[in-house]
Design a protein that fits this description.
Keywords: Membrane, Transmembrane, Transmembrane helix
Order of helices and strands: HHHHHHHHHHHHHHHHH
CATH class: Mainly Alpha
Number of helices: 17
CATH topology: Growth Hormone, Chain: A
Organism: Ignisphaera cupida
Radius of gyration: 20 Å
Largest sheet: none
Protein name: MFS transporter
Length: 395
């Protein structure tokens, strides 16, 4: 492999690890953080949904401005990485110094976090197209596996940092310390990202409408999947704290179990992807995710929840790996920006809507458990997950 391509690969994989630290030590604790500031499911759900709505706006713009994102993908990637990670740091500082009362702090920090997520989503769209053109075809499935594996190892490291901090103290200041440490770590590879170059020849055209009709059923399936699975997402942390009598150490143990599963599965999944289509793996992963989400309220001990989290982690990483492999290896370059932006849009707007509805339902019913059971509707998406070619054959 050329030294330039090797450097590119190393930088991207380092960033996968650091992204994992951020995800495991910051994103994964946002619901627990919100639960310490409010006991109302609706406030917790809204604070969780705001960054997802922000990202959705970016993906809508990317769908309309596909050529712009393709031509300037590396510059967009670098600038949005810098801005987003600086804003995550600012949000963490606000939590640390705690200048607002509980509910105001929740919404102010969520607003800054949402702006950071918007910039991060610009990087996500640019990254997908950049990776698809710059990673050699014979390494793409292996890269997806390594990206998932290192991201998960990073998430495990982030959760371990959280576990260490919460082992000594469970307070608002503990969250401030955790978020500040993780946000600082997330900035470490920014100089390396600034040094990246684009080695591929970029097409100067995109096919805006090429995937509109054939992919309709696929998009509906993805929407059903993410709407269903995310209905109870914002309820898990408050359910553990207020219903099961757990705390941040429960949440840390469950997060670590999820990430351990995500470490164990990418290598196996990368081998599976050599033998089956990515979307076949997606169907298997959906069934596992739906089942592990629906049984959540029935598991009353930390040991059972840790076991469930392992299954959920395996299913979640399977869905992500299969969708990413599908985008970078099965979609033509002139369709990639539009298709990936649409998938990412659904991955953000559906959870944003679902978590808000789930929180409202839990408050209205005064019981969050039915919301977990409704999430099993994700199974309905399985027969609808089809490639362009399969859908065209059925026409």
């Amino acid at each position: 492999m050329e030294k330039s391509k090797l450097f590119l690969l190393i930088v991207l994989l380092i960033d996968s690890f650091l992204w994992g630290v951020w995800f495991g030590g910051l994103w994964s604790y946002r619901l627990a953080f919100a639960s310490r500031l409010s006991s109302d499911y609706i406030h917790i759900s809204i604070s969780y949904a705001l960054p997802l709505f922000s990202s959705s706006i970016v993906f809508l713009v990317a769908m309309r401005k596909q050529l712009f994102f393709r031509l300037y993908r590396l510059a967009l990637f670098k600038l949005s990485i810098l801005f987003s990670r600086m804003l995550f740091l600012v949000s963490s500082i606000l939590v640390t110094i705690n200048v607002f009362d509980a509910l105001k702090l929740l919404y102010v920090s969520s607003a800054i976090f949402s702006l950071a997520s918007g910039f991060g989503s610009i990087a996500g769209v640019a990254w997908t197209d950049y990776v698809a053109d710059n990673i050699p075809d014979n390494l793409k499935h292996r890269y997806v596996a390594l990206d998932s594996l290192l991201g998960t190892i990073g998430a495990l490291a982030g959760s371990s940092i959280a576990g260490y901090i919460f082992a000594f103290e469970k307070s608002l200041l503990s969250y401030g310390k955790l978020f500040l440490v993780v946000s600082t770590i997330f900035l470490l590879d920014t100089p390396l990202i600034i040094m990246l170059k684009d080695y591929a020849v970029k097409a100067n055209t995109v096919n805006v409408y090429s995937n509109a009709k054939p992919a309709t059923l696929f998009y509906i399936a993805i929407a059903i999947l993410f709407l269903s699975l995310n209905l109870p997402t914002s309820l898990t942390a408050p359910y553990i704290i207020y219903k099961l009598g757990g705390d941040e150490l429960w949440i840390t143990a469950m997060n670590i179990s999820t990430f351990v599963a995500s470490i164990a599965t990418p290598i196996a999944f990368s081998e599976i992807l050599k033998k089956v289509k990515p979307l076949t793996l997606a169907r298997i992963s959906i069934a596992l995710s739906a089942t592990s989400t629906a049984i959540f309220p029935q598991l009353k001990t930390v040991e059972l929840q840790v076991a469930r989290a392992f299954a959920s982690g395996a299913g979640g990483i399977g869905v992500w790996m299969s969708l990413l492999s599908h985008i970078i290896s099965e979609v033509d370059s002139d369709k990639r920006i539009g298709h990936s932006s649409t998938i990412y849009l659904i991955q953000n707007i559906a959870p944003a809507i679902a978590t808000s509805i789930g929180g409202a339902l839990a408050d209205i019913l005064k019981n969050p458990e039915p919301v977990f059971y409704i999430s099993s509707m994700a199974i309905a998406s399985i027969p609808m997950i089809k490639t362009y070619e399969h859908q065209n054959k059925n026409k």
